[in-house]
Amino acid sequence: MTIRLPVADGTLRTYEPRTDPLTVTPGTPFTSRTVFSAAHVVADPFADTTPDGPAAVDWDATLAFRRHLWSHGLGVAEAMDTAQRGMGLDWAGAAELIRRSAAEAKAAGGRIACGAGTDQLTGGSLADVRAAYEEQLAVVEESGAQAILMASRALAAGACGPEDYLEIYGHLLRQAAEPVILHWLGPMFDPALEGYWGSADLDAATEVFLEVIAAHPEKVDGVKVSLLDARRETDLRRRLPRGVRCYTGDDFHYPELIAGDAQGFSHALLGVFDPLGPLAAQAVRVLDTGDVRGFRDLLDPTVELSRHLFQAPTRFYKTGVVLLAWLAGHQTHFTMAGGLQSARSLPHLTRAYELADGLGLFPDPKPAEERMKNLLSLYGVDQ
C-alpha cells in the first residue's frame, strides 16, 4: 500500500501510509479546560453556484460533523472564520448556520458559541457598524447560543481611533444578555483587520483591548486571541480580570499555552481542533488527570501539521481543514464554498495528507489513500 506524492521541485516520491489509525473513544466531559473547535461548513457540490454567489451548504453533512465534535466532548465555535465567514459564507448563510447548529446542539446536549460580526456591511458609518453587530448579536442570543463578538472589517475601516472601539464594544457589552467571548483576530488571518483596536502597534492595541474588558468584566466570559504570538498571549492572560478566561486561538503554540505555567493557562478555541478533534479531546482528558507530560506527548506532535495548515497566507488554512475532513470520511467530496478548494497548491495538500496520516487521524487509512490518489490523478499524477 504505497502512494506517489509530488514535491515542490516537480518530482515524485513514494510514501507508505500507516495502517494503524489512532483509536479514540468518547469519554467523560473535560474538567480542567473549556475547549471549542471552530468547525468548517460542508459545501453542496451539486449546487449550481459561482465563487462570488451565495454559498450552498450541505446541511446534513455540516450538522453531522458538529455531532462528531460533540461526541468527543468538544464545544463547537460556530460561524467563525473556519466556517468561511467573509470568504464564501455571507451573513444570510451564517444566520441559518447559527440557527440550525444551535438547535442541533440543544438536541445533542452539546456546547455551542456563535460568532456575531458585521459582515452584512460593505461600508457605512459607525452607527451602521453598531446596528450590524446588534442584528447579529440578537440572532445568536435568540438561538440560545453563547455569543462571540468577532472582529469587524467595517469597524477597522471606519474607526478613527481607540475611542471608537471603546464606544462600540462598550455599547454591545452593556446590552448583551449573557457574558460573551471577545475575539481578537490578527491580520495574518484577515489583512482587513490591520490596526484593530485603533493601532498597528500591538502593545498600544493591547491596552485598548484590556480597557474594553476592564470596563465590563461581568459581561466578558473570555477573550479569544489569534495573533500567533505565545509570549504576547501569556502576558495578556496574566493581566485579565479575575474570572475572565483566555481562549487560545494560537494554532502555532497551543500545547504550551493550554498546558500553562505556574501563573495560569489558556482554554482553547481553535480551528486546528476541527481535524484534530478526537486526538485533542484525548489529550485534554489526560491533562484533566494532572498529567501535563502525557498531554504534551499527545499534542506536541500535531504542531507540525497545524503550522503547515496555517502557513502564510494563513487565511487559506480552511482548504487543508476541509481536505482532511474529506480524507477522514466526514464528507463525500473536496468542494468548498467560493471554490476555495483551489486556494492551496498540490504539494501543500499532499504534505497535509502525509502529516495527518502520520498522526493516525484517518479512521480508515485505505479510503483516505484512495481519495488522495483520486485527487492526485486530477492533477495528472499517475500512480
Search tags:
14 helices; 43% helix; alpha/beta; 10 strands; 8-stranded parallel barrel; 383 residues
Commentary on this structure:
With 383 residues, this protein is an alpha/beta fold. It is 43% helix and 12% strand. The protein contains 14 helices and ten strands. It has helices at residues 59-71, 91-108, 126-143, 153-158, 162-175, 202-215, 230-239, 254-259, 277-288, 292-299, 303-309, 317-327, 346-358, 365-378; strands at 3-6, 12-15, 35-38, 75-78, 112-116, 146-149, 180-185, 220-226, 245-248, 267-270. Strands 3-4-5-6-7-8-9-10 form an eight-stranded parallel beta barrel, surrounded by four helices. The protein has a two-stranded antiparallel sheet with strand order 1-2. β4, α2 (91-108) and β5 (112-116) form a beta-alpha-beta unit. α1 (59-71) crosses α2 and α11 (303-309) runs antiparallel to α13 (346-358). The longest helix is centred in the N-terminal third of the chain and has 18 residues, at 91-108. It is globular and about 60 Å long.
Number of helices: 14
DSSP strand content:
5-15%
Backbone shape: globular
Radius of gyration computed on alpha carbons: 20 Å
Describe the sheet with the most strands: 8 strands, parallel, barrel
Going across the biggest sheet, name each strand in turn: 3-4-5-6-7-8-9-10
Helix content: 40-55%
The ordered string of helix (H) and strand (E) elements is EEEHEHEHEHHEHEHEHEHHHHHH
Mean pLDDT: 96
N-C termini distance? 11 Å
Based on secondary structure, the structural category is alpha/beta
Q: In total, how many beta strands?
A: 10
Uncertain runs: none
* Oligomeric state, counting identical vs distinct chains: single chain
